[in-house]
Amino acid sequence: MRRDQGWLVDPVVRRQLAAVERQLREVGCRGGRCPGFHRQLLSPRSKRLRPALLLLAARFGNDTPHSVTIAAAAGLETLHEATLYHDDIVDEATLRRGQPSVHAGFGPVVAALAGSELLYGTPELFADLPVRLRRSIGRAIDALCRGQLREIETLGDVTIGVRQRLRIMRDKTATLFGLAMRIGAALGGVDEGIAVRLVRFGMRFGLCFQLADDLLDLQGTHEAVGRVPHADLRDGVYTLPVLYALEESSPVADLLRSYLLQLQGDAKTSLVEGAVALVRQAGGTARGVETLRSWIASAEADLEQIPGCTHRAAARSLRRLIRGLSYGAANTNGERAGFANTLPASTPGQQAGKAPALGLV
Fold this sequence. Notes:
Layout: H1 11-28, H2 49-58, H3 67-91, E1 95-96, E2 99-100, H4 102-106, H5 108-126, H6 131-153, H7 162-187, H8 192-219, H9 222-225, H10 231-235, H11 240-247, H12 251-263, H13 269-281, H14 284-304, H15 312-330
């Protein structure tokens, strides 16, 4: 079992993931040689969440997963890793999962070409899927690129609204999780009513996953994040907690806005730490945690609506996965996340604010 897969209590899916791993090794080691720049694809630190979700979704049906399902799961992970190679070029990230990124180790040209190689290799893994699923993959890739481009367009824009940020989160992160559930449900012969709920769960999990990651980047330690913390603030990416803080009509919010504008020209550590403290002081971090809790409850409700718990081990795995985000973001003893101890508790007079609607179909 991989690191951070304690949530996966379905033994069948664990075995299937081993087959996915073998497929990924074939992708990264064509001709029997594994180039160093593909160590990220094969990293034991990768959580393999997207292929796991695809395989779990298939378990809610009657059909036994076959080679097409395994290949699709490997294709989805390959696609995801390709986007990370390219993301690290945009972000000039030096670390990925605590290890040097491809960009840092081999330079932007190699990272771009290696990511493109992975991307261009995915059609072979998706070749045997029905046409409608291949079209879904194409639409998901388009949404993912659109979300990433929209994020780049809004870098350093202190006027970006919560709704705009939600669209970016949906497109660049949640879409791929929803796609995993859609493909798995279709290949597993899952009842249409259950498939709709599974896809909705995947989308909501994706939003929760992104928000938890945003909170971790804002308040986490280097060890907990696996990369340099506060990267979003340094890069001018304003996540939900920051936008919540900016929504407040207060001197603290005005001061935060001033800090963010200064950071665009000089990302001094003192300025970054000051901005983090102001986000917390303005209630942005607390509101972000409350939003995460609300979304997690919505995702759990989708699972509860599946009649008769069609597959108990799969359902329990998904429930443990989504609750793990809640544990990581709100655990008071700070075990899983370095930022947990710094989260402010809501006071009786504090208005945490209503979590924005997910707007998912």
